[in-house]
UniProtKB/TrEMBL annotation:
It holds the Pfam family Aldedh. Belongs to the aldehyde dehydrogenase family. This is Aldehyde dehydrogenase family protein. Residues 25-476 form the Aldehyde dehydrogenase domain.
């Protein structure tokens, strides 16, 4: 067991959490603070095939007893964990901020509480949806949710705590044991979850956390002991995981990248739409659902751009602990280089960089909020997810053209539409390709609604009883009445 680390007064374990014990690895990897890159936060255990075996063994051993509990009994554990997350909100917010650079204020005010709510919500939903019973054709019918087995949850580096809890809660509530593998660039808040799982009294092996990257990821996704794989991350990794899942015939959900349109009609509240568009630079654009393609009706182009620039000018780049900051640092220098590469290639092909386009300060992890007017719709900056503070700007003449532009990528995670016309809201809302489409708003979520992507944005749906279905083997039992 490695020594615990003190991060600004918060004690964090750099180890795995398997069977409610801390387990170290011979090798480690570094995690650094994105907005203070010289600051190393921890050397974290680098999991391998052996770690994967230990975690699967612990989750397999714990499964029968956890699965045998009623949804109500499991809910008591989830609710305790939810309370502990709330009680430890300040500590979790601080560590997540230092490790991932999400703005401290937003973590304190919203994000950590939403993570707590994920457990509470699934505690209730699993009780509500435990069984369906009805009579038909002279038989009593029951749909029984049978827990599937150990579930593997793999998460990306952006919004690590919120996403981990969003994905682990339904698995646990459905009666599966869990192995969570967070991403290497922001591993620390998930490690803190291990302490809270222990404190909440979960039986050993029910909820395990392993650290590392592709090596342990491959070992886990190939292990026949894993009965569900729930992945959030990039398209290339999904392809690898999907092949391993296919080998073992294991159900697999994938929440992947996006390149969502923010479609603005001339009848919209242009000021509100422009403000929302400038808000897409929040978290340095490292948001899967970001409306990164701004598509505006030609007739209001000038008015929109004037208001957009007004709001974009107000952004403050800086330290994520500072309440004045609105644009956080990007996660890692490698990612900064990747984003700058997109901008450079766009410049070379003749796309017009109308705002930003450079690293903010030499040697640091910010890219200026950037707006690009592409020469045409085939530009890489229009067609590929950049996952940085880079928006494209295009215009359209008719509603039909606007919708066609919005739907012209391989992605389909979400969409944002601004219009003042209720009929158009319904019509265009239905036509825009995306698992979630918001009209005149953004990121409002009801946790019982399905969430997922179309096309290369993903497979399957999370949220509500959709995630409970995924984590269960549904059985129909019919008894002659
Ligand atoms: P990534 O695919 O590089 O990594 C995601 C996770 O997969 C990490 O935990 C990583 O360690 C793990 N991994 C890598 N190789 C693996 C392998 N061979 N086997 C098993 N696991 C492996 O993605 P990322 O860069 O961490 O995250 C950014 C991406 O995530 C973006 O595309 C973003 O849009 C997407 N994302 C999607 C959603 C959504 O809900 N749709 C939410 C957040 C992020």
């Amino acid at each position: 067991m490695a020594e615990r680390i003190d991060i600004d007064g918060v004690s964090v374990s750099p180890d795995h959490f398997i069977g409610n014990r801390r387990v170290s690895s011979p090798r480690t990897f570094e995690t650094r603070c994105p907005f203070d890159w010289d600051r190393k936060l921890a050397d974290v255990a680098l999991g391998d095939a052996d770690t994967a075996k230990q975690a699967v063994a612990a989750a397999t051993e714990a499964f029968p007893a956890w699965a045998a509990l009623s949804a109500k009994e499991r809910a008591a554990y989830l609710n305790r964990l939810s309370d502990l997350i709330e009680e430890n909100k300040e500590k979790l917010a601080l560590v997540e901020c230092l490790d991932m650079a999400m703005l401290l204020e937003s973590l304190q005010l919203r994000v950590i509480s939403r993570a707590a709510l994920n457990f509470r919500n699934y505690a209730d939903l699993a009780v509500e949806h435990e069984e369906r019973v009805w009579s038909s054709k002279g038989t009593l019918n029951r749909v029984i949710r049978m827990p599937a087995g150990p579930a593997l949850i793999i998460t990306p580096w952006n919004a690590p705590f919120m996403l981990s809890t969003w994905k682990c809660a339904p698995a646990l509530a459905a009666g599966n044991t869990v192995i969570l593998k967070p991403a290497e660039w922001s591993p620390l808040s998930a490690s803190m979850l291990g302490d809270l799982i222990d404190e909440a009294g979960f039986p050993p092996g029910v909820f395990n956390i392993v650290q590392g990257g592709a090596e342990i990821g491959n070992a886990l996704t190939s292990d026949p002991g894993i009965k569900r794989i729930s992945f959030t991350g990039s398209v290339p990794t999904a392809r690898v995981i999907g092949r391993n899942a296919a080998e073992n015939i294991v159900p697999f959900t994938a929440e992947l990248g996006g390149k969502s349109a923010l479609l603005v009609f001339e009848d919209a509240d242009i000021d509100a739409a422009a403000k929302k568009a400038a808000g897409q630079y929040d978290d340095s654009g490292q948001v899967c659902m970001a409306g990164s393609r701004v598509i505006v009706q030609e007739s209001v182009k000038d008015e929109f751009l004037e208001r957009f620039n007004h709001y974009a000018d107000q952004h403050v780049l800086g330290d994520s602990m500072d309440p004045a900051t609105t644009v956080s640092a990007m996660i890692h220098p490698t990612h900064v280089e990747r984003v700058l590469g997109f901008i450079e290639r766009a410049r070379e092909r003749g796309d017009e960089i109308v705002r930003g386009g450079k690293r903010w300060k030499e040697g640091q992890n910010w890219v200026e909020p950037t707006l690009i007017m592409p020469r045409d719709n085939n530009s890489e900056v229009v067609q590929s997810e950049i996952f940085g503070p880079v928006l494209t700007f295009q215009t359209f003449a008719s509603e039909e053209d606007g919708v066609a532009l919005a739907n012209s990528t391989q992605y389909g995670l979400s969409g944002i539409v601004y219009t003042g016309n209720a009929e158009r809201a319904e019509r265009v809302g239905r036509q825009v390709r995306g698992g979630t489409v918001w009209v005149n708003t953004f990121l409002v979520r009801d946790l019982t609604a399905p969430f997922g992507g179309i096309g290369i944005s993903g497979i399957g749906r999370e949220g509500g009883d959709y995630a409970l279905d995924f984590h269960s083997d549904l059985k129909t039992l019919q008894i002659l009445e």
